[in-house]
Specification:
single chain, 135 residues, mainly beta, Metal Binding Protein, Guanine Nucleotide Exchange Factor, Chain A, 7-stranded mixed beta sheet, 3-stranded antiparallel beta sheet, 5% helix, binds zinc ion
């Protein structure tokens, strides 16, 4: 989906950001660490160009949820906003729900279904990957 500028921010408004360029790899992630980071049964992510993600207000605090993963969140309200994996340095994953217009980006697959909660029933017909899947 081609959208020139995406904007978003956290729950309390201390962090605001802008993204240039198109989003890709739209997915729902069911992995254990996304669930805990988001405080939710799964998290919807979009990958964007890491160098085109710009903070326009505030700063992200980072948490290393594994050796090669840094998760960015608002230190004031705790909203989980970004995911950066050292193995994909050009990508920054942004939580779709933090966009001002989250309906603009619909996830296209489910990843880490091997870690999905038993009571989450996927009924949307989208492709499902046991681990990380490329869509
Ligand atoms: Zn906040
Ligand atoms: Zn995940």
């Amino acid at each position: 989906m081609e959208i020139t500028t995406l904007v978003g921010g956290c729950l309390c408004g201390a962090v605001r950001f802008e993204i240039g360029g198109a989003a890709r790899h739209l997915c729902f992630c069911h992995c254990h660490s996304c669930r805990l980071a988001g405080g939710a049964p799964f998290v919807a992510w979009a990958s964007v160009d890491a160098d085109r993600f710009v903070l326009t207000r505030g700063a992200l605090r980072e948490h290393r949820s594994s050796q090669c993963v840094a998760r960015g969140f608002c230190a004031e309200c705790g909203t989980s906003i970004t995911y950066a994996h050292e193995g994909r340095p050009d990508d920054l994953d942004v939580a779709i729900a933090t966009l001002d217009q989250p309906n603009a980006l619909a996830p296209a697959c489910h990843v880490w279904v091997s870690e999905k909660l038993a009571w989450v029933e996927i009924g949307d017909g989208l492709p499902q990957f046991e681990e990380f899947g490329a869509v």
